[in-house]
């Protein structure tokens, strides 16, 4: 596949941008080779600057749940932009968005917008500490909550991909209150609470971790986290930046029937524009400035164009409708992809563990189950690299790292899935 124009652009990018990318996971460091550049996307496809068409299962890491350049989102952005790009003054879209999220996610009684998922998680942690007057936070290895100093400890996503889960530039004091536990392990969390009586402000968790690939909570695990936080006066924070409004109209908390104290969102609610949000119980949220003592702010928080794009995304998804929405279709495509990929691996005689939750998925090259990051780390990453590039040559783009989740949009057709599965069968046979 000709990628001359991408190579030329990457050479130029390397002169001015660290690693040639504005976010590390785009750099292909986990899979080898150089990233391609995209200047056009529509529906389930992206086209690189050399004109190669690819079926896209990254979906800009989640926001493109309707596929790329959905007409409803494009027209909403154009209409909003006609009236200005930012006011720094309250705008009506912010109220519509806040009201809609509170309707869709019953645990959220009040919500504050930010411009990224990182900001949302950082702010939720600060709020939990301010509200409980405690300092310590529990997170789980392999879970990624953005590049927050205090949470870049045994994180997932790019941090895991690069093999140095802890980042340089973070003073030990900044992470001394962060306690890391293995995901899906109840005893570990019990021991932490026992050893830190009345000191834990909260637990932050990806309810379905999508930053070490994808694995699911064991039955009862999320209920356990809810119970133990309540029992110890700590807060349960669901990081739904990835799962929110994707795994169900009310996110993972609806799918698994859990009521967290605070939730973080992003991606889908921005329709591809910079956005994040955090929300939860009113008595906690009212601790935020200007009402309360926890300061949090943002020039572009609630930006009118990002709000318009996010509202168009949610409305077109049918998130505001209990029936006749897009979630059944997303589930059906997920079932089709899972069945096809498992069949392809079986017929090729290649051990693959394929995890899926709704329209999020990950295939690991291992014959053992994957329930946490330790399991994920045992997968064969050399095979993943070969598979990734083989699929790319077949016109299918999966995340350029074993430690990322894949995403399906409503724009992915049954034919797209069939093409993907046929390509996988061919590539797997050649591994
Ligand atoms: P952002 O700051 O990238 O908007 O959101 C951070 C974040 C927080 N929480 C979860 C569960 C997330 O998945 C993310 C960001 N996801 C990554 C993909 N693994 C974004 C891709 C990237 O870093 O370039």
Textual characterization of the structure:
The chain is α/β, with parallel strands linked by helices and 431 residues long. Among the domains are: 1-30, no CATH class; 71-319, Type I PLP-dependent aspartate aminotransferase-like (Major domain) (Aspartate Aminotransferase, domain 2), CATH 3.40.640. Helices cover 38% and strands 14% of the residues. It is built from 15 helices and 14 strands. The chain has helices spanning 4-16, 71-82, 92-104, 117-132, 157-161, 172-175, 186-195, 221-231, 251-256, 282-285, 304-317, 327-348, 373-377, 381-393, 414-429, and strands spanning 38-42, 45-48, 53-56, 110-114, 136-140, 178-181, 200-205, 235-239, 262-266, 276-280, 353-357, 360-364, 396-397, 406-407. The chain has a seven-stranded mixed β-sheet with strand order 4-10-9-8-7-5-6, with helices on both faces. A four-stranded mixed β-sheet has the order 1-2-3-13. Helix 2 (71-82) packs antiparallel against helix 11. The longest helix has 22 residues, at 327-348. The two termini are 19 Å apart. The mean pLDDT is 96. Bound molecules: ligand KE4. The site of ligand KE4 has 21 residues, from helix 4 and helix 5.
């Amino acid at each position: 596949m000709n990628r001359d124009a991408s190579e030329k652009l990457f050479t130029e990018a390397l002169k001015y941008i660290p690693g040639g990318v504005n976010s590390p996971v785009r750099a292909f460091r986990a899979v080898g080779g150089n990233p391609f550049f995209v200047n056009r996307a529509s529906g389930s496809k992206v086209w690189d600057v050399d004109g190669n068409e690819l079926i896209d299962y990254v979906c800009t890491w989640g926001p493109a749940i309707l596929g790329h350049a959905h007409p409803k989102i494009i027209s909403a952005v154009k209409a909003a932009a006609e009236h200005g790009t930012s006011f720094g003054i309250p705008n009506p879209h912010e109220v519509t968005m806040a009201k809609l999220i509170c309707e869709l996610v019953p645990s959220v009684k009040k919500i504050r917008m930010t411009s990224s998922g990182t900001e949302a998680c950082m702010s939720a942690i600060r709020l939990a500490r301010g509200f409980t007057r405690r300092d310590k936070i529990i997170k789980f290895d392999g879970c990624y909550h953005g590049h927050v100093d205090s949470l870049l400890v045994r994180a997932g996503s790019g941090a895991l991909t690069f093999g140095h889960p802890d980042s340089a530039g973070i003073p030990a004091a900044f992470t001394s209150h962060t306690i890391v536990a293995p995901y899906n392990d109840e005893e570990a969390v019990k021991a932490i609470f026992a050893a830190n009586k009345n000191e834990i402000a909260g637990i932050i968790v990806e309810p379905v971790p999508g930053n070490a690939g994808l694995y699911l909570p064991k039955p009862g695990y999320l209920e356990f986290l809810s119970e133990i936080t309540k029992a110890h006066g700590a807060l349960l924070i669901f990081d739904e930046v990835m799962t929110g409004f994707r795994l169900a109209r009310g996110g993972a908390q609806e799918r698994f029937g859990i009521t967290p104290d605070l939730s973080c969102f992003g991606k889908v609610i921005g329709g591809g524009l910079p956005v994040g949000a955090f929300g939860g119980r009113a008595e906690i949220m009212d601790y935020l400035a200007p009402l309360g003592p926890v300061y949090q702010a943002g020039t572009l928080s609630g930006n009118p164009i990002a709000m318009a794009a996010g509202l168009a995304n949610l409305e077109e998804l049918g998130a505001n409708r209990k029936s006749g929405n897009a979630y059944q279709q997303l589930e059906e495509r997920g079932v089709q992809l899972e069945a096809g990929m498992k069949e392809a691996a079986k017929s090729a005689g290649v051990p693959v563990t394929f995890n899926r939750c709704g329209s999020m998925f990950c295939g690991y090259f291992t014959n053992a189950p994957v329930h946490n990051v330790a399991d994920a780390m045992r997968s064969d990453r050399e095979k993943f690299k070969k598979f990734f590039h083989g699929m790319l040559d077949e016109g299918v783009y999966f995340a350029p790292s074993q430690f990322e989740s894949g995403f399906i949009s409503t724009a992915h057709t049954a034919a797209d899935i069939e093409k993907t599965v046929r390509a996988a069968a061919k590539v797997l046979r050649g591994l």
